[in-house]
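REQUEST FORM: STRUCTURE PREDICTION
Request ID: SP-0412
Submitted by: Lab K.M.
Chain count: 1
Length (residues): 196
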Amino acid sequence: MNDMISRLHDVRVSSGEVTGVMVDIFNRTLWAVGHAQIIRSRVSTAGTVNSCTFTWESDMDLGWSSRQESIIWYVGSRPWTKIVSLNPFDGIIWGDFNDLYLAAMSWKSLRVVIKHLDSSYQSVDINNVHLMNSTLIILDTTVQGAVQTDELMCQQWAGFLYTDGMYETVKWTTGRTILEERTVIQYTSIDIFSEI
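STATUS: Completed
RESULT:
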């Protein structure tokens, strides 16, 4: 898009449409004159690009745009292997938590694919694995950039995924430290992957 290749995070699949948030980029024109303005965009396979701009380490949104654009999607070739599948009703249905611990201790990248109750899928990276007891594990997702289309603002969010079926997310405006929204939802199942 715009002669630029960008990595996506917070990738979601719902009703046949894929959306993802591009890694934040500096406004190249303003960067050349010493202004640190950031552009964050949510793109979709339907060609919709929703973008917001903000000043680095500031909570002030500077602008918002929504447009249609031709986007070429590439699938990365990083090798991943599924190490655990579970659901909140049966616990582990495939794999072993020991494999999860071994992958976490070896500093391999971890990713989780969440199937939500509305049959949509979400893929996020995992930062930390917390062992609470023999059956409860908390997966701490990385902080993600978000483009809140209904409120036309740039946000950040992080999540805590519990193996007992709860998925807790917190959101805040980019640049602020005050929590603005906390949600707790149930999920249908999760698959945890480790980079090979």
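NOTES: The chain has two helices and 15 strands.
Reviewed by: T.R.
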